User: What shape does this take?
Amino acid sequence: MQLRADQLRQALARGLAPLYVVHGDEPLLAQEASDAIRQAARAAGYTERQVHHVAGAHVDWSGILGASAELSLFAQLQLIEIRIPSGKPGKDGSDALQRYAARLPDDTVTLVSLPKLDGSQLKSAWFGALDAAGVSVRVDPVDRRALPQWLAQRLAAQGQRVQDGEPGQHALAFFADRVEGNLLAAHQELAKLALLYPAGVLTAEQIEQAVLNVARYDVFKLGEAVLGGDAARALRMLDGLQAEGEAAVLVHWSLADDIRLLCRLQTALQGGRPMAMAMREQRVWGAKEKLVERLADRLRDAPLAPLLQGAHVCDGIVKGLRDPAWPGDPWQALRQLALLTIQALQPPPKARRDGAPAAPRLPLVLRG
Assistant: This one.
C-alpha cells in the first residue's frame, strides 16, 4: 500500500500496519513521517525500540533481522527500525528483506527508512516485497508554487495566519522566497514566529522582520523557473547559487541542457510528432513535464536557434573566453542566457486594437 506523506496520519488513526517504508529526500518531511509512526507505535504499547543502520559492504543481515525475535524481559511489543541511507541493501540485503517481508514477526512494527529511490529501485524485488507487506510512504519535496500554501497550513497548525487578501498573499510569497528549497529552515522560522508572536493574525511587517533569508537553491530547479517564465525567480536563484559558491560551469550545463531539450522537442513537433510522444522519447518527467507541456504551442515556432548560439557563447565565457556582445562576467552571462530563454518562450505580442502592430520586444542584454 502506497501513501503520500500527508495521508499518513489519517492512516495511522485507523490502526497500525506491521511494516512501514519511508522513502524520499526531503529531510523534514521524512523525519516527521517517521516520528508519526514512532508516536503511534508508542501509543499502541510498542515500548521496546531497536535501531539498525545498514552501511558498508559487509552487513550482518541475520543479526539485524534476527533481533526482531528478541524481546526484553518486560516488553511485549517492539518497534524495529532499519535505516538504509544508500537505498541499496545489496544482494544479501535484498534476499534478507524479501524473506523478512514474507514472514513478518508477531508483536513487532518495522520501520524501514530510505532516501529517494530511482525507478529501478522502486521496481526491485526487495522494495516490492516490503511494499506488499505493509505501507510505503513517499516523501515528495514541496513544489515552489505550493510552498506558500504549505506555509499557511503550518501557521494554522500553530494558531497563526497571515492577513486576508493581497497583503497576506504578499507575506506568504516573501516567506516562500526566503526559505525556498530548505524546509528544515522553514520549520525553524515557523517555530520562531510562534515564539515571537501570539496566536492570531501576523502582519507582513512582522513576518519580514522575523524571517531570515535561509533559501537553499538547487541548480536543477533553475530550469523550472526558466521554463515557467518566472524571470524574477530565475534571477533570484542565480544570485543565490552564486552566493552559495556553485560552479558557473554546472549552472551553464543545466541551462544549456534545457535549451538542447527544447530544440529536440521543437524538431519532433515540426516533424509531426504529438507532444506527449515527443516528451516520452526525450524522457521528460516530473515537474518539468508539466512546464514543457504548457509550451507545446509556442515551441513549434519559437526562435530557438539563437539560444543555441547563445549557450555556445556563454559556455566560452564561463571557461574564460570573451565575446564583445556579451557580458564578460560569467554570472552576468548566465543571467542573460536565462532571460533570453524566457523571452524566446513567451508568446508573440498581440497586435494593438487600432490595427497598428505591437511594439517589438527589446532584446535583453546585460552588461558587466
Q: What stands out?
A: Residues 18 and 233 are 44 Å apart (CA to CA). The chain has three domains: 2-139, 144-210, 219-344. Residues 144-210 form a domain with the Helicase, Ruva Protein; domain 3 fold (CATH 1.10.8.60). The chain has a mean pLDDT of 87.
